[in-house]
TrEMBL record:
One of its GO terms (cellular component) is endoplasmic reticulum. Belongs to the leprecan family. GO terms for biological process: bone development; collagen metabolic process; negative regulation of post-translational protein modification; protein folding; protein stabilization; regulation of protein secretion. Residues 570-684 form the Fe2OG dioxygenase domain. Its EC number is 1.14.11.7. SUPFAM superfamilies: TPR-like. GO terms for molecular function: iron ion binding; L-ascorbic acid binding; procollagen-proline 3-dioxygenase activity. This is procollagen-proline 3-dioxygenase.
Length: 767
């Protein structure tokens, strides 16, 4: 009846270790509790080989505790000494010399004071660490075994053998969290799951990091739209973060790692030696960002982990009506990303609601500001050391402002990047395969992000959410009303018909989706060109251009995207029922499909590969009218038949959704009249942004002499306008820069994806 316990063969290295070390016999007089963790681990491994389960438990549990105790002692001692070293000597010294010493004599005294402090600190450390502390320092290999949580692998077998199931399950689960690819442990866990007497609550992670647990809880409440609970846990996560950060940094102050130097040949002089060690410690402290953001068992740390707390929090506070806190968190986030457009808009919105007099005094959080300042100073020193001594520093943060990096280093890095670019171009074909894999991976993670991000502000006045995902019975869906007035809708409908008769290549073709409807369409750029030629009213073409940008910004904000959304394709389309072809009509106006994958409804799968437009991330349709029969838009399940929600078109209404398999959709037959809508597809991948849009931007800039192509939000204070003006300059530069990138990327894109040729435009139209 016993489950097959498939323990991985005990590690050979550990057995060797056990043989080398003095292994006390169980029951001997030796005081086990004072032994270092590596000896206890070795003793536990040896007991495992003998099948002495209670000894395995005794030694392994003690090994875990011994390592933890050593860690705690080190941390406590270093923190205590750090706190002690700031007071005392220098102040007393200065009291004895009330008159400031001359410049010439200040130098040697400063040096002495500096080293005096170091001496005191070292003396403090020597006092507070136990004798022979180095005996407790674990070797690299043993430390790795602990990090892989190997002791829990032994423990789960031992506990199972002595029939302590709850402990066995906890140990198994704890091990598995850090080793998610461990097939044997997965099978063990499956067995445990089926066993009588095992409760769900037994599956605990005994080594869970509190800050990560709270963060995860906070985010999951956030996702469930429970802002109060999200706030509670995210604030707790931050508290735990500071503790973990302090501890992590204290642990960095260890011995110098010669890193491949032969220490016998190491002959650095005083300051060089100090700096070698100091930069190593400082680098390690900077590395705590990554250490704290890493999730057990996952290779990639969470990006921008600390700032992201404030991104979640600002919105959770906003959702629970606490504007002051929302402002505080938004300002805190902006410390790290001062140019974040969405956050700036949020802040402007919260400020407008709360009122300037209340909003202005709200500061970013003190502790974070301090952290940010310190981190910048550390980076400055590390970059200096990189520049001057060539001690490499890999910055773990994405938010570091460029000014922190010395000019010379920036140039050197630029040259290095260019060289790297040349090399990678040469092996480009090989890289592309890898790139595709990576792209899929990041797509997966953005898919994950999408779940969390919904419900951002609508940016413009006069817009309202008519239905959210919940009301639309799905995810990543929204219906927003108020984009256009009746007059504007009519102008755009006239524009399409005028464009069609002016002959822009569509000329009232039969719909590619049904023989019972005709189909006219015009792109933004075409409309502007026709306006320029006087074939359609210029104002209508401009309106068309403006309103598509408005939809783009709203989508970006509402779905809380942290990278810009680019136009991938936009098309104003009118479909007209052909009167004598409506009898017995059974086909839809547009069959059910998914925008970025090929839907196989029978197999219930959606294949995300070309010829599907796999790079499309979000879609929106803006309706111009509702005075026709049929033509409702609907979402379905993956089977393409079970309708989950229906949306009735009307002037100024937009339906927006993510373009993936979560949102199959179609359009019912238009049986009478004309149905007009602007279909918009967006991508997060700048490489796939629409070339025609860039041309349209240029044309608008030329025709209307606008500095900026973005529509500023309608609400803005005087102070904000000044900021906007400043931004415009930046924005322009960015556009130029982006174009260059696009141009470069297009070469790549053209060879890998079918270029959308003019004649196939109809096929691209899916709504
Ligand atoms: C810290 O300083 C205080 C007095 O300033 C002293 O009593 C204490 O022993 C010091 N702590 C350590 C660990 O040296
Ligand atoms: C389009 O937007 C620009 C910039 O906000 C504005 O000046 C212009 O009047 C708008 N034009 C139309 C036709 O909506
Ligand atoms: C969502 O589903 C409910 C129940 O099936 C239905 O009554 C409702 O109309 C659906 N929502 C939409 C927008 O179609």
């Amino acid at each position: 009846m016993a489950p097959r316990v498939l323990l991985a063969r005990p590690l050979f290295g550990l057995l060797v270790l056990a043989a080398q070390l003095f292994v006390p016999a169980v029951g001997a007089e030796t005081d086990l509790s004072s032994l270092p963790a590596d000896m206890l681990l070795a003793a536990g491994t040896e007991a495992y080989a003998r099948g002495d389960w209670s000894a395995v438990i005794l030694h392994m549990e003690r090994a875990l505790r011994a390592r933890e105790a050593h860690r705690a002692r080190l941390i406590q001692c270093r923190l205590r000494c750090a706190a002690n070293s700031t007071d005392g000597l220098p102040a007393k010294d200065e009291q004895q010399h009330p008159a400031p010493p001359a410049v010439g004599e200040r130098r040697p005294l400063d040096d002495l004071r500096f080293f005096g402090q170091l001496l005191r600190r070292a003396g403090c450390l020597r006092k507070c660490l136990p004798d022979g502390a180095s005996r407790y320092q674990l070797g690299e290999e043993t430390e790795l075994e602990f990090r892989k949580r190997s002791p829990y692998n032994y423990l789960q077998v031992a506990y199972f053998k002595i029939n302590k199931l709850d402990k066995a399950v906890a140990a198994a689960h704890t091990f598995f969290v850090a080793n998610p690819g461990h097939m044997e442990m997965r099978q063990n866990l499956d067995y445990y799951q089926m066993m009588a007497g095992v409760k769900d609550s037994d599956f605990v992670d005994l080594e869970a990091k509190p800050h990560m647990e709270e963060f995860r809880l906070g985010v999951s409440y956030y996702t469930e739209e429970k802002p109060q609970a999200a706030i509670l846990h995210l604030e707790k996560a931050l508290e735990a973060y500071w503790v973990a950060d302090t501890e992590c940094r204290a642990l960095c102050e260890g011995p110098y790692d010669y890193e491949g130097y032969n220490y016998l040949e190491y002959n650095a002089d005083l300051f060089q030696a100090i700096i070698d060690h100091y930069t190593q410690v400082l680098s390690c402290k900077q590395g705590c960002v990554t250490e704290l953001a890493s999730q057990t068992g996952s290779e990639k740390p969470i990006e921008d982990f600390l700032p992201s707390h404030f991104n979640y929090l600002q919105f959770a506070y906003y959702n629970s009506g606490d504007y002051e806190k929302a402002i505080e968190c938004a300002k805190t986030y902006l410390l790290f990303f001062p140019n974040d457009e969405v956050m700036k808009q949020n802040l402007a919105y919260y400020t407008a609601v709360l009122g300037d007099n209340l909003a202005t005094p709200v500061r970013p959080r003190k502790d974070v500001e301090l952290y940010w300042r310190r981190s910048l100073l550390e980076k400055e020193q590390l970059f200096f050391a990189y520049d001057v001594f060539g001690i490499p520093f890999v910055d773990p943060d994405t938010w570091t402002p460029e000014e922190v990096i010395p000019k010379r280093l920036q140039e050197k890095q630029k040259v290095e990047r260019e060289t790297a670019a040349r090399i990678s171009e040469e092996i480009g074909n090989l890289m592309k395969e890898i790139e595709n894999l990576v792209e899929e991976k990041t797509k997966e993670s953005t898919d994950m992000n999408k779940l969390v991000r919904e419900g951002g502000p609508l940016v413009y006045d006069g817009l309202g959410i008519t239905m959210n995902s919940k009301l639309l019975n799905g995810s990543q869906r929204v219906v927003v009303d108020g984009f256009l007035s009746d007059e504007e809708c009519r102008a755009l409908q006239r524009l399409t018909n005028a464009a069609a008769s002016a002959g822009d290549g569509y000329r009232g073709k039969t719909s590619p989706h049904t023989p019972s409807e005709t189909f006219y369409g015009v792109t933004v750029y075409k409309a502007l060109k026709l306006g320029q030629e006087g074939k359609v009213p210029m104002q209508s073409a401009y309106l068309y251009y403006n309103v598509t940008e408005k939809v783009r910004l709203v989508m970006e904000s509402y779905f809380r995207l942290d990278t810009p959304l680019h136009f991938s394709y936009s098309h104003l389309v009118c479909r007209t029922a052909i009167e004598d072809k409506q009898e017995d009509r059974a086909d839809p106006s547009h069959p059910v499909h998914v925008d970025n994958c090929i839907l196989n409804a029978e197999a219930l799968v959606c294949v995300k590969e070309p010829p599907a437009y796999t790079f499309r991330d979000y879609s929106a349709i803006l309706y111009l009218n509702g005075d026709f029969e049929g033509g409702a838009f609907y979402f379905t399940e993956l089977d393409a038949t079970t309708v989950t929600a229906e949306v009735q078109p009307q002037c100024g209404r937009a339906v927006g959704f993510s373009s993936g398999s979560e949102n199959p959709h179609g359009v019912k037959a238009v049986t009478k009249g004309q149905r007009c809508a602007i279909a918009l597809w967006f991508t997060l991948d700048p490489r796939h942004s629409e070339r025609e849009r860039v041309q349209a931007d240029d044309l608008v800039r030329m025709l209307f002499n606008t500095e900026e192509t973005e529509l500023p939000p309608e609400k803005e204070t005087v102070a904000e306008k000044e900021i906007v003006a400043e931004k415009e300059i930046v924005a322009e530069k960015e556009i130029v820069a982006e174009k260059e990138i696009v141009a470069e990327k297009e070469i790549v894109a053209e060879s890998s994806t079918p270029a959308p040729a003019e004649d196939t435009t109809l096929g691209k139209d899916e709504l």
